[in-house]
Specification:
Layout (H helix, E strand, L loop, with lengths): L2 H11 L2 E5 L9 H12 L5 E4 L4 H11 L6 E4 L2 E4 L1 H10 L1 H9 L5
Parallel strand pairs: 1-2
Antiparallel strand pairs: 1-3, 3-4
Helix pairs in contact: 1-3, 2-4
Length: 107
């Protein structure tokens, strides 16, 4: 499987996927840590891909998503954005509304 197919498979395999530096339990950058914290605080189950452990994905995803930085949050196959957008949407209530609209469980 080529890298683009693998990326698409990751995005399509779970309702919420975070491409991040590190893991939710051991994030390797502050932006990835903050984004995963937001998702955890909302009680959302999410998959993750550690782009530091997957250099091909790290190099290719920005071209596929047309988003240059990490983390990248996808909900039901749609790119939501990075840390700042995720935090702003959580603070405004838009993220919970999006999860509700997409049928994604949260607390």
């Amino acid at each position: 499987m080529d890298v683009v197919e693998r990326i698409k498979q990751e995005i399509d395999s779970r309702p919420v996927v975070l491409f991040m530096k590190g893991t939710p339990d051991f994030p390797q950058c502050g932006f990835s840590a903050r984004t995963s914290q937001v998702l955890k605080s909302l009680g959302v189950e999410f998959g993750h891909v550690n782009v530091l452990a997957e250099p091909e994905i790290r190099a290719t995803l920005p071209k596929v998503s047309n988003w240059p930085t990490f983390p990248q949050l996808f909900v039901k196959g749609e790119l939501i954005g990075g840390c700042d957008i995720t935090v702003e949407m959580a603070q405004s209530g838009e993220l919970v509304k999006l999860f509700d609209e997409k049928g994604i469980k949260h607390s």
